TrEMBL record:
<dbReference type="InterPro" id="IPR036409">
    <property type="entry name" value="Aldolase_II/adducin_N_sf"/>
</dbReference>
<dbReference type="Pfam" id="PF01381">
    <property type="entry name" value="HTH_3"/>
</dbReference>
<feature type="domain" description="HTH cro/C1-type">
    <location>
        <begin position="20"/>
        <end position="48"/>
    </location>
</feature>
<feature type="region of interest" description="Disordered">
    <location>
        <begin position="250"/>
        <end position="285"/>
    </location>
</feature>
<dbReference type="InterPro" id="IPR001387">
    <property type="entry name" value="Cro/C1-type_HTH"/>
</dbReference>
<dbReference type="InterPro" id="IPR010982">
    <property type="entry name" value="Lambda_DNA-bd_dom_sf"/>
</dbReference>
<dbReference type="InterPro" id="IPR019293">
    <property type="entry name" value="ThiN"/>
</dbReference>
<protein>
    <submittedName>
        <fullName>Thiamine-phosphate synthase family protein</fullName>
    </submittedName>
</protein>
<dbReference type="Pfam" id="PF10120">
    <property type="entry name" value="ThiN"/>
</dbReference>
Length: 324
């Protein structure tokens, strides 16, 4: 009796690790860095490099496996993909190959009795909450890399700080929105990102995004910038719908949330509802991407928001049209 999981351990894992080790070495990783990225010993990396580990030609030749190695290797090399997401992506392919596919066929070869069964084994559902959340965090990382590489972005950061956010497909509150803890600040002309994206750490930009979505806007990403009439004019001239909204006080939240501090510093109430945003977006009904802005008030800093399909999409608009 042999379980399909044994084939994963004996054939798939050595093959995928060998392929990833080779991919990362080609990307300039040292043996130690490869070991850290894959969670294996340096001696294991050395064995993979010298062909001392038995691998499966059938698995290594599969286009899906090759694509997986490319995606994971690139993600680990750029930092866009965490080790958790890499694990999830590999697990997804394993489950696909187990479900009436390559590994299932290999299982039938070593367990001929299974052919008499005639049915497929739907072992696991490849879609998972972990995979979705890690994909969103990875998307925010890609957007942050674009912003950091944008000349003059630091000059676009408002006094309250910037944040780049992206929400889950079915986001209901700020806990479903990934952002930078502590916000992005201009430190001596350099945009400083203090830590890796997390969920539930932005109330200010997240609440604007959620309010726009509540009003029907098909957007999942947003970034806030300093307000400048010339900036609004440039974005409008570039073809982006621009929507002005009124700042409202006294809105109430239906639940306590984690705040990134921007609301208090901007003089606004700490809540997750933005009636002014929702009303303005509902009335304008703009296509994605679009621009939201408010011109400030007593104790309230004027702010510009760019909203779009995801975090990299809004970051590219900043790069292409909002040079500080």
């Amino acid at each position: 009796m042999k379980f399909v999981e044994e084939l994963v351990v004996e054939e798939f894992l050595p093959t995928i690790r060998s392929m990833l080790a080779a991919d990362l070495r080609e990307r300039g990783f040292t043996q130690r860095e490869v070991a850290e990225a894959l969670g294996i010993s340096q001696s294991a990396v050395s064995k993979y490099a010298h062909g001392e580990v038995t691998t499966s030609d059938r698995i290594s030749a599969d286009d899906r496996v090759r694509d997986l190695v490319e995606r994971v290797g690139s993600g680990l090399a750029t930092g866009d993909m965490s080790r958790v997401q890499a694990l999830v992506e590999i697990e997804v392919v394993i489950r696909q190959l187990e479900d009436g596919d390559l590994l299932a066929e290999r299982h039938r070869e070593v367990m001929p009795e299974l052919r008499e069964h005639g049915g497929d084994f739907d072992v696991h559902d490849p879609e998972s909450t972990v995979r979705t959340t890690e994909e969103v965090r990875s998307s925010v990382r890609r957007g942050l890399r674009i912003l950091r590489n944008t000349s003059g972005f630091a000059a676009l950061v408002p006094n309250v700080g910037s944040n780049l956010v992206e929400c889950l497909p079915d986001a209901a509150d700020v806990e479903d929105v990934a952002a930078v803890p502590g916000r992005i600040f201009d430190v001596r002309g350099t945009a400083t990102v203090p830590s890796d994206p997390e969920f539930g750490v932005s109330e200010h930009v997240a609440s604007v995004l959620l309010s726009a979505r509540d009003a029907g806007a098909p957007v999942r990403g947003a970034v806030n910038l300093r307000y400048d009439p010339a900036l609004i004019d440039d974005l409008r001239a570039a073809g982006y719908p621009t929507v002005e909204f009124a700042v409202e006080h006294g809105a109430t939240s239906s639940r306590p949330t984690v705040d990134d501090g921007a609301d208090r510093e901007a003089g606004e109430d700490d809540d997750t509802t933005r009636p002014g945003v929702a009303d303005a977006v509902r009335e304008a009904d703009p296509d994605s991407p679009f621009v939201l802005y408010q011109t400030g008030g007593f104790g309230i800093e004027p702010i510009t928001y760019i909203l779009g399909d995801d975090a990299p999409a809004v970051a590219r608009i900043v790069r292409d049209h909002c040079q500080g």
